[in-house]
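ok so for the tutorial part 2 we go from a plain amino acid sequence to predicted structure tokens. step 1 is just haveing the sequence, like this:
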Amino acid sequence: MQQEIDYAKLGLNIKKLRQSKKMTQENLAELIGCNPSHISNIENSYTKASLNTLLSIANILDTSIDYLLLNQYNNQSLALDNEIAKAVADCDIETKERILRIIKVL
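step 2 — the prediction. this is what the tokens look like for a chain of 106 residues:
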């Protein structure tokens, strides 16, 4: 059975991540080479993002397509595992140890 993409959830995830990076729709549009209204239309699910656009958005926002599709992805845990690993990859050993202790407490 083929699953349909929920473009409203996808658009919301893009918007939240873009805003968390203090990026405007204009900034994102300029970086991927499209019109800001196209980003607005994607975020508000008025239009579907092409795979090329989605890949560009994921790369600019430094995330993965599976993370953008997290709310509808069958293996949400894997997507989150990847984001966590990426978030701590550049940390020094002491910071990683603190993060590990926090995770164990949780």
